[in-house]
Write a structure and sequence with these properties.
Rossmann fold, glutamine amidotransferase, GATase_2_dom, 594 residues, nucleotide-binding, alpha+beta, asparagine biosynthesis, Glutamine Phosphoribosylpyrophosphate, subunit 1, domain 1, single chain
């Protein structure tokens, strides 16, 4: 829901209102239903609104609480806003709207920066204290909603997307070699606070940043599950864990139906999205709108899972919509998807989500989606190998199964000035694995995947692609209470049955067994995976462009080798290496980064 922007001056000057306006206008797709600006002293805020809760103008932003002398902008949804409102009214607060934004402002007035501990939901926000000039920035626990930052000695700018910051101007757009290293090591993931651009950072998940009038700031991480076995769960068997997970997931799904507009479901036909549909049916939802997408086959690889999504739609009598995308539409839709990316993303389903969101947004403005279940409940095949090693062996094993390539391979890919002088991606993983908590190697791997890799790949992907059409996607598997429960669950219950065992046990209670016991599917886009004609043409065009030659990220000999055999070179995880190289250049060119 929505997009926010702002600027804080540290040098005694006034904020650049025109720059904030440009940032705000670049966020128009995220908030097609309203636009607002506010400025006082050294701070300016901008907002684009997507109307989900309190559809009246009382919910417009930036929102000022004159009584408490606060102004804020907010992106996301506080699912327990009604309960919090009632609590705050009992504490003497008066409300002029029915919006969750006003609840946030009153919660900040009541609890200060600890207000985040009271919020159930996905959010990024900025709150300005009029008297002190202090600005508080915050991001939700799982980083579902983004917040990008660009800072110099005189000012801090922030926005819901990286392209919005670029629209404001004055951003250092040189490439960050450490971020490029992560991009090429982790399937295009760049961990917070970095981005591929040296001048842009992102506020980490579960973080509150307090910015003082003079530019001093401090960050506070307010949430992190321990990934250890809790005494409260001692003695629970597989059936007990199944019931606990089912109850927590049912609560998460119910929470995400809070809206003043209808809520649908993106139904892939896999276990995760099918469970959402089933549990909504248990809650009494009828005529639920569900949406599936598929692609033409390429090189013998199937591009849709309609057979399974149809089973679920029929079982629960949903209002089901199928979208079949021909291969030539993939190449045509590629540029739009790249333009919507705050950071380069190589996963094939990025284009799929963008095309699907375009169609869904014609009918709804809110959907639930199944992202996150594989990381939270150990659904990927490599987790079994993680569980088989000792804790001290984990970083090396994780690199073997997760990294696209080792550090040594980057020397023959990158020009010397783009190559980090040591294995920064490996060091990051080793440091993360060494942090306190996480009893086993698998616990450490799931902690890293859930709180780092997932946030800056699938979670970011869903936010960027849906919000580019003014469509809000809610992800119940990332309900923080469900994540805490899963983190405490013994590894053997998650790894059972080839992965996500405890979730499959839930599925057998509410879904047709053909959906639960099917082979694990991925979201294939064969035209990209196999470099089908139009996609390959776009790749060649980008890599031969004058901008690419001037930039010189990759060695010419390496690029020539990839282009000579476009469908041959694969990363350790099976991704097309040419696509990974080309996508970075396509993204830079699309966003006019020189």
């Amino acid at each position: 829901m929505c997009g926010l922007s702002g600027e804080i001056r540290f040098d005694g000057g006034r904020p650049d209102i025109a720059g904030v306006e440009r940032m705000t206008d670049r966020l128009a797709a995220r908030g097609p239903d309203g636009r607002g600006l506010w400025s006082q002293g050294a701070v300016a805020l901008g907002h684009r609104r997507l109307k989900i809760i309190d559809l009246s103008e009382h919910g417009a932003q930036p929102m000022t609480d004159a009584e408490n002398r606060l102004t804020g902008v907010f992106n996301g949804c506080v699912y327990n806003y009604r309960e919090l409102r009632k609590e705050l009214e009992g504490l003497g607060h008066r409300f002029f709207s029915t919006s969750d934004t006003e609840v946030l402002l009153k919660a900040y007035r009541q609890w200060g920066t600890s207000c985040v501990d009271h919020l159930l939901g996905m959010f990024a926000f900025a709150v300005v204290e009029h008297e002190s000039g202090r600005v508080v920035l915050a991001r939700d626990r799982l980083g579902i909603k983004p917040l990008y930052l660009a800072e110099d000695i005189n000012r801090l700018r922030f926005a819901s997307s990286l392209p919005a910051l670029l629209a404001g101007g004055g951003v250092d757009t040189s490439l960050d070699p450490q971020a490029v290293h992560q991009y090429l090591s982790w399937h295009a993931t760049v961990a917070a606070p970095r981005t591929v651009l040296a001048g842009v950072r992102k506020l980490p998940p579960a973080t509150v940043r307090v910015v003082e009038r003079d530019g001093r700031h401090h960050d506070h991480c307010y949430w992190q599950p321990s990934y250890t076995r809790r005494p409260a769960y001692a003695g629970m068997d597989a059936a007990d864990w199944r019931d606990a997970v089912r109850d927590a997931l049912r609560t998460a799904v119910r929470r995400r139906m809070v809206a003043d507009v209808p809520v649908g479901v993106l139904l892939s036909g896999g276990l995760d999205s099918s469970l959402i549909v089933a549990l909504l049916a248990e809650e009494g939802q009828t005529d639920l709108a569900t949406f599936s997408i598929g692609f033409e086959s390429e090189n013998g690889e199937e591009g849709d899972e309609f057979a399974y999504s149809d089973i679920v739609a029929k079982e629960f009598a949903t209002d089901h919509h199928q979208l079949m995308v021909p291969s030539d539409r993939v190449s045509a839709g590629l540029d739009g998807a790249v333009e919507a990316m705050s950071e380069p993303m190589v996963s094939h389903d990025t284009v799929a989500f963008h095309l699907l969101s375009e169609q869904v947004a014609k009918q709804l403005s809110v959907v639930q989606s199944g992202q996150g279940a594989d990381e939270v409940f150990a659904g990927y095949h490599w987790y079994a190998r993680m569980a088989a090693v000792e804790r001290q062996q984990e970083p090396g094993t994780y690199a073997d199964v997760y990294f696209d390539r080792p550090h040594a391979d980057l020397a023959r890919m990158l020009r010397p000035d783009m190559l980090a002088d040591h294995d920064v991606s490996g060091d990051f993983v080793r440091d993360h694995m060494a942090a306190p908590g996480a009893e086993t190697a698998l616990d450490a791997a799931l902690r890293l995947d859930t709180h780092v890799m997932m946030i800056d790949d699938p979670v970011k992907r869903v936010d960027n692609m849906t919000m580019d059409w003014g469509l809000e996607a809610r992800v119940p598997f990332l309900d923080h209470e469900l994540v805490e429960l899963a983190a405490a669950c013994p590894p053997e219950f998650k790894l059972a049955q080839g992965g996500k065992g405890v979730l499959k046990d839930v599925g057998r209670q509410v879904l047709p067994h053909t959906v639960v016991d099917r082979p694990k599917g991925y979201f294939p886009v064969p035209a990209i995976r196999h470099m089908a004609g139009p996609v390959l043409d776009r790749v060649r065009e980008a890599l031969s462009a004058p901008e690419a030659r001037r930039r010189g990220i990759f060695r010419e000999s390496y690029v020539a080798e990839l282009l000579a055999a476009p469908d041959t070179h694969r990363t350790n995880r099976g991704a097309n290496a040419l696509w990974q190289v080309a996508l970075l250049e396509i993204w830079l060119q699309t966003h006019s980064i020189s």
